[in-house]
Amino acid sequence: MRDYERAAEQYSHFLNINPQNAAAWNNLGTCYKKLEQFDKAVLAFEKAIEQDAGLMSAYFNLGQTQDMLGDFAAASQNYQKALMLSPRSMKTYIYDKLAYAYFMQKQYPLALGAIEKALQFAPNDPALLEHLQSRKKAVIRAADAARP
Description:
Layout: H1 4-17, H2 22-34, H3 38-51, H4 56-69, H5 72-85, H6 88-104, H7 108-121, H8 126-146
Helix pairs in contact: 1-2, 2-3, 2-4, 3-4, 4-5, 5-6, 6-7, 7-8
């Protein structure tokens, strides 16, 4: 297991000297996320974005942390920002996370749309395709159950 406490101390020290370093803020946020110090993680990811609005990983990490906090509306906004900045190789994973955030908000049509996008970008990976199809079926079942 990695020593995230020590790493967080080192990043904090570095950021006292170089507070404009977006990557260091993002890494500090990751340490806090791993330590389950989610409020501190959110602040660090927001600081990373403040320093570099084009840092895709900071939006993605912020979205994941907001997921963990149950703030699915904010998470979905940050996943959307990450998608705009992400390379093709990351899109399946981010769309899958976005689908989950929409699902948790009971926004089933948006969740299905995100899953369809994930499937469009999915590599020829049978396990990944099975996961996405399973998620799609769960969303359809939930949407059907929610109908009056």
